[in-house]
Amino acid sequence: MLSDSSFQRSDLSSYTSGMKILVIEDDREAADYLEKALNEVGHTVHVARDGESGFVLADNGDYDVMVVDRMLPKRDGLSVVAGLRSRGNDTPVLILSALGQVDDRVTGLRAGGDDYLTKPYAFSELLARVEVLNRRSGNKEVETTYRVGDLELDRLSHVVKRAGQEVTLQPREFRLLEYLMRHAGQVVTRTMLLENVWDYHFDPQTNVIDVHVSRLRSKIEKGFDTPVLHTVRGAGYMLKAG
Amino acid sequence: MKTTAARLSALYLLLFAGCAILLVFYMTSLSGRMLVGQIQDTINEEMAGLGRAYQRGGLASLVRVIEMRSRQPGANLYLITDPQGRILAGNVQSLQPGVLDKLGWTERPFGYQRYGEAEGERRATRYGEEATVDADPTQPVHLATAVVLRLPNQMIVMVGRDLGEPERFRQVVQRALIVTLGIMGLGALLIWFFVGRTALRRIDRISEASRRIMGGDLSGRLPVEGSGDEFDRLSENLNEMLARIAALNEGLKQVSDNIAHDLKTPLTRLRNKAESALGTPKDTAEYREVLEGTIAESDQLIRTFNAILMISRLEAGYSAEAMVDVDLTAIARDVAELYEPAAEEVGVVLESAVDVAATVHGNRELIGQALSNIVDNAIKYSADTDGESRVVVSLTADDAEARLSVRDTGPGIPEDDRARATERFVRLEKSRSQPGSGLGLSLAKAVMGFHHGRLELADAEPGLLVSMIFPMIRKPDETADRPG
């Protein structure tokens, strides 16, 4: 989904120490824009303008995340990703493409991409996805309990507590909160929520996700003074203590 | 040899002539050999008869029999000579020299003359055989084959038969061959004339017409003569193809007109906003507001583009790889659950009556998106109405099809407009004020077409009933259980 409109870039990134990002994109303007914007939020960006040199850079450099355009001169983006994967390089990859249909996404992810974003995209969307992909953010899949401030979620017993008090959630609300807590401190967009909580990849057009989030918010914040589920203007939501 | 017909006729002529000549030679040699064989059989029998006469009555009997047989009409050749070669009896007047020197069958035909043949009469013999036959060309000559025997008393007996019969046969065949080849030559000319001048002229007319059509006259059609032959069928099929192309072209034109209209309007708004923002100096907050509006407007444009692309892609045939068995029940529940809070917020009750299990062959994402569009529309149109607003998502299934329906309490669509409602960009007049690309139902229709199903609009009294109808997957074990 495309973004709401207003944001300050500096609001969007929760990272104090920047990530090292490789952008493989042949369109000069798009690459410059990405480089500048990612720099502004504190990330280090290297840019390759074709598939061959991108592959060489990726193979030698130690990147936290790569952003790879699908259609590249010299070597196709999917082939770059597949090549890296076959050499044991597991750097997370966000594939960018003008092709956005269901089967395009499937082929993109099958080639070894970790996420897929269709052009034109909102920078906030790209940034949120890149930061979620960052491998240094750790693998929270293995944790059985998530904690953000006084909010606590037990993934096994499906019990959610705020300041020790149990909060009753619907199954979907539980999955929504689970995803937000897994990426606590990171911006998650509406599209990311639709993809990861509902497993649909289309553009919901209306505010369906917002309404779900505000229902969840009322359940976990009602009666408590401190908000934990924040709306990041122009981007999405972030779960953060205080 | 510019035309195919001329080339073909020449080739056929050559081929046929070759075959005919081969056949004729084979036949003449075969039947010639058979005739000669018959002649030899006859001669052998004669000889045996003479032998019996000789044994019965000696030389006198033999001479008598030969004299008798010689006088019969159409008789064989008979000759008996004394040891010095003087003719004693028989019907041969003269003989090519050397014939009697060798016993047994004569190796090649020889010339002879019978008694009683008119002086100076000469029967034509084949050129080339003449030399071996006759030293004196003024003498009338016949050709014959014979067997020569020496009696115990050194007298020589010869029995032979005229070869006129096989010779005549050969001449008949030869004449037939010449006539046949002549007819074939004529036939080739006729074929060239009909194929080359008639059929090829039609091909020329067809290619001329196609050139005109390629030149831009898309309304032009290929000539059909009404004979129903291959050329007509070809032209008819090509004409149908042209008609289809013209229809697609027309559709494309209409779509691009619609796109132009529906995209130009927001683009113009976008441009006007930016222009007026630049026109007068403003503070940061105002600029910000304009830019926000600009982004929102372009997002809407991108959505419209995406929907158009998706519809075209679906209509062009999506990759079948994206098709698997999908749980329609789960999709219906997902979408109902997804939209329920949003519906509630605008005062619409969204109910789901999804109790049956239905699995269809399809694409979960596409079905989910199509259903979302329908539900989104239903909520939008129900929200404005007075009284209770209710949207019901329901799923029913039988052996033949699964029916995923969305019923709303909105204003509905008049029957006359329903077909038009699923066309691209059609937003019926009453709904012009509603936000949206006008592509929701068109997309749903395209998705249903892709799934070999259909989209039905009906009156829900009040409101609209939109049904996505999927053909059911027939499981092999189920059909096997059924009798018949």
Automatic annotation (TrEMBL), chain A:
Family annotation (SMART domains): REC, Trans_reg_C
Lineage: Bacteria, Pseudomonadati, Pseudomonadota, Alphaproteobacteria, Hyphomicrobiales
Database matches in PANTHER family: REGULATOR OF RPOS (PTHR48111), TWO-COMPONENT RESPONSE REGULATOR (PTHR48111:SF76)
Coiled-coil residue windows: none
CDD domains referenced in this protein's UniProt entry, alphabetically: REC_OmpR_CusR-like (cd19935), trans_reg_C (cd00383)
Entry keyword annotation includes NADP: no
Keyword Transcription regulation belongs to the record: yes
Protein name per UniProt: DNA-binding response regulator
Domain Response regulatory: 20-134
GO biological process, alphabetically ordered: regulation of DNA-templated transcription
GO MF: phosphorelay response regulator activity; transcription cis-regulatory region binding
SUPFAM superfamilies recorded: C-terminal effector domain of the bipartite response regulators, CheY-like
InterPro entries: CheY-like_superfamily, OmpR/PhoB-type_DNA-bd, Sig_transdc_resp-reg_C-effctor, Sig_transdc_resp-reg_receiver, WalR-like, WH-like_DNA-bd_sf
UniProt modified residues of type 4-aspartylphosphate: 69
Domain OmpR/PhoB-type: 143-241
Record keywords, A-Z: DNA-binding, Phosphoprotein, Transcription, Transcription regulation, Two-component regulatory system
Residue range(s) of DNA binding per entry: 143-241
Listed Pfam families: Response_reg, Trans_reg_C
GO cellular component, one term: cytosol
Signal peptide boundaries: none
Gene3D superfamilies in the cross-refs: 3.40.50.2300, 6.10.250.690, Winged helix-like DNA-binding domain superfamily/Winged helix DNA-binding domain (1.10.10.10)
Organism domain of life: Bacteria
Organism the protein comes from: Tianweitania populi
